[in-house]
Amino acid sequence: MRRIVPIVLLCALLPLHVATLRNAGREWKALPQGEETAYTIPGPVLKLTSLEFDGVAADFMFLRALVFYGSTFERTEKPRVKEWEWRRLYNDLAAATDLDPYFLDPYYFAQANLTWEGNLVRETNLLLEKGSQYRDWDWMLPFYTGFNHFYFLKENDQASVYLMEASRRPGATPLIASLATRLALKGKRTENAIFFLREMLRREEDEEVKKTYRIRLEALSGILALERAVELFREQFGYLPTSLDSLVEAGLISKIPIDPYGGKFFISYDGSIGTTSDLR
Amino acid sequence: MSLWPVAAVTFKEGIRNKAIYGISVFALLMLGASLLISGMIMQEVGKVMVDMALSTVSLSGLLLVLFVGINLMAKDLDKRTIYMVLSRPISRSQYLFGKFLGMVLLIVATIALVSLFALAAIALTKLRFPDYFLHFSWGLIFLSIALTTLSLILLSALSFLFASVTSTSFITLVLTIISYLIGHGINDVKALVEAPQAVGIQVAPSTVKLVQGAYYLFPNLSLFDIKIQAAHGLSVPLSTIGWTVAYGLGYTAMVMILASLIFSKREFP
Prior knowledge:
The complex is a heterodimer of chains A (280) and B (269).
Chain A: H1 4-30, H2 43-49, H3 54-71, H4 83-99, H5 104-114, H6 121-134, H7 140-151, H8 156-168, H9 175-182, H10 189-203, H11 207-237, H12 244-249, E1 265-267, E2 273-275
Antiparallel strand pairs in A: 1-2
Chain B: H1 3-16, H2 19-38, H3 45-78, H4 82-86, H5 92-128, H6 138-165, H7 169-194, H8 205-217, H9 227-232, H10 238-265
Helix pairs in contact in B: 1-5, 2-3, 2-5, 3-5, 3-6, 3-7, 5-6, 5-10, 6-7, 6-10, 7-8
């Protein structure tokens, strides 16, 4: 008999527990929330507080970035990732590489996403330079830095310095050295970009990243074909074509290539090729 | 030698402790999780796997020292069973060193067991993703485990020192945890106060002296941590290992001698 009272009490409290937790949880969710997920504890502090577990801490910081980035693919709004979120991703990756500067994946992830989509090219280069300092056997990191200088920042001199550095490291293909010298030649931007991308594609194993490289290669090949046709047109007629259709009419190309990013190619006033999609 | 009976009893007592099962279950769960996590990594699967495995070994050892090791000695004092031991023909320092020897055996046995799981987890992942283990060395992994074991023995020696000074096992536990935290931070803090311009802060000269003093007083446990090097297969010079092992053994010996001095003079209520 004496036992029944506490058991009954327990049974009565159990639904109460469920109800209170649910309500309190709902109320808590409705509270104004700061963007606290945007905050990353700075690397040096993490380094000190992670004691002897800095390697694992680096892994978790990287996974934090990876999981967050993956979660943005469920969104429908545009742009999919906001500016401050790219910063947050950058901070996570910077912290991960402060904890373990030898860890390749954060550099790799930054190169694959922060530059093309996030516009954080200078920041990515900072990361890559840190990695390049520690991973002094790895030619990929200075190669990427050189690519970013060339492709995004349009700083060919800087680019060739990094490519030279890359070409000196073990395992680097001899092509990199010749690319470094070719960058000195002005006006071959598209060709050089294709060259870079082919090399990156050849080294890539991740299917998703490969796909983005292939799409870009396709777009650049289209641009290159159009640029060459414009050049031929100028030589033949002595003036620049006013539209892409005149290239087809002159028989220089069979049809206007399709921009895989969904835009339309056009000729600027100076004869260079642009696209309405801006390649993104 | 009358050390062995005490050591054997200590070892058996430790093995029977239920906390050991808890630690083993924890280690298995961690390693199971690491198998899952390694699948999410793009490039350096091997690095992440070795990180997780070695950290599991370290953390299990730490839990052993903190929650099993401290009790082995402190319980005798807390529960006054030490009177029974000391009434036998055995000196106090023999008792202390015997206890410590038993604890060392327990640490080695537990680390060996957990390492076996950890190595199996690494080998399993290596079979699954052989292409992502480019810079990989079993030798460095074994070396890292050996140095971890040595640092745990050092920490355990410190807990014996604290147990011989303090009156309750709780204070011993707190002091040991504090020593562990300081031991892993002191290297970075010393580097920070000696080159404060790197992060743009001002440090008073007295602070530098204080930290440098603490550097020699507290154990520098960071020296025993070569997990990152092991994970990336970076070379660790033989001289580094030699000096670290010598430092660890020397520090442990000093701490234990100090502990036995204090323990012999100690008066029991």
